[in-house]
Amino acid sequence: MAADTHDLPPIAILGAGSMGGAIARGLSRSGLAAQGVTTTNRSLAKAAELDGLADVTSVALEADPTGNTDAAAAARVVLVGVKPAMVPDLLREIAPALHPGTIVVSLAAGVTIATFEDILGDGVAVLRSMPNTPALVGRAVTGLAAGSHADDAAVATVRRLFETVGTVVEVPESQIDALSTISGSGPAYFFLLVEEFTKAAIGKGFAEPEARLMAEQTFIGAAALLEAAGDDPAELRRRVTSPKGTTERAIAVLQEARLEAVFAEATDAALARAKELAAGA
């Protein structure tokens, strides 16, 4: 039977760890992967975690040593999810198996598009991506940068792929590291705030389960309200902050702590480290 024109082309995810596995699950849920997704992992145990997903074939390299090249040869979109230090060797391994026009997408932090293009040559469209961990629940923000051989059609295909696990922001590669300090690291900032809010509640005499419930659900509810309302967050904050009320007093303390400078300094530190990692430090 002919493939639905809305389907994504055959996909391979080489090194389907936490992020690659989340993408495989999103593709499976989406119904867009009828032409197939092949995932590879080194161990049988890791590969077994993706067994049973609709439209997904999970391969263990310890049982099938040619799994990476076989998957790459059968795919039209190849996601590279191995650890950054392993990327060059994997690219050299699969390069002879790739069909002209194949789209290769990096999931590896700190590995440049130039590294991919130098090894794979001109016949391959390369894109660099930076998804974040909410991909696990279908709410990722993915930064996407196109290489010199990636045309509009290739970018559109990869955008559709990542939209199965959330939203996509297209940026030039020069902004990928900066994006990582916001959306990539951002979930950790949020979790830290929940941790500290929970501690504050415990300090007010609440038991840990109650404190955690209040902190988590307050942030989750506020995020849902922000999404549903569509208003600027500053406006929503003003609506909660009654003049001369308790919230106004608390907000004043937070503003005196110069949160704007703190967040700027924190993201600057993350960006500096990203540049160090890209340089091999």
From TrEMBL:
<keyword id="KW-0028">Amino-acid biosynthesis</keyword>
<feature type="domain" description="Pyrroline-5-carboxylate reductase catalytic N-terminal">
    <location>
        <begin position="11"/>
        <end position="110"/>
    </location>
</feature>
<comment type="function">
    <text>Catalyzes the reduction of 1-pyrroline-5-carboxylate (PCA) to L-proline.</text>
</comment>
<feature type="domain" description="Pyrroline-5-carboxylate reductase dimerisation">
    <location>
        <begin position="173"/>
        <end position="277"/>
    </location>
</feature>
<keyword id="KW-0560">Oxidoreductase</keyword>
<dbReference type="Pfam" id="PF03807">
    <property type="entry name" value="F420_oxidored"/>
</dbReference>
<dbReference type="InterPro" id="IPR036291">
    <property type="entry name" value="NAD(P)-bd_dom_sf"/>
</dbReference>
<comment type="pathway">
    <text>Amino-acid biosynthesis; L-proline biosynthesis; L-proline from L-glutamate 5-semialdehyde: step 1/1.</text>
</comment>
<dbReference type="InterPro" id="IPR000304">
    <property type="entry name" value="Pyrroline-COOH_reductase"/>
</dbReference>
<dbReference type="InterPro" id="IPR029036">
    <property type="entry name" value="P5CR_dimer"/>
</dbReference>
<comment type="similarity">
    <text>Belongs to the pyrroline-5-carboxylate reductase family.</text>
</comment>
<keyword id="KW-0963">Cytoplasm</keyword>
<dbReference type="GO" id="GO:0004735">
    <property type="term" value="F:pyrroline-5-carboxylate reductase activity"/>
</dbReference>
<dbReference type="InterPro" id="IPR028939">
    <property type="entry name" value="P5C_Rdtase_cat_N"/>
</dbReference>
<dbReference type="Pfam" id="PF14748">
    <property type="entry name" value="P5CR_dimer"/>
</dbReference>
<dbReference type="InterPro" id="IPR053790">
    <property type="entry name" value="P5CR-like_CS"/>
</dbReference>
<keyword id="KW-0521">NADP</keyword>
<dbReference type="InterPro" id="IPR008927">
    <property type="entry name" value="6-PGluconate_DH-like_C_sf"/>
</dbReference>
<protein>
    <recommendedName>
        <fullName>Pyrroline-5-carboxylate reductase</fullName>
        <ecNumber>1.5.1.2</ecNumber>
    </recommendedName>
</protein>
<keyword id="KW-0641">Proline biosynthesis</keyword>
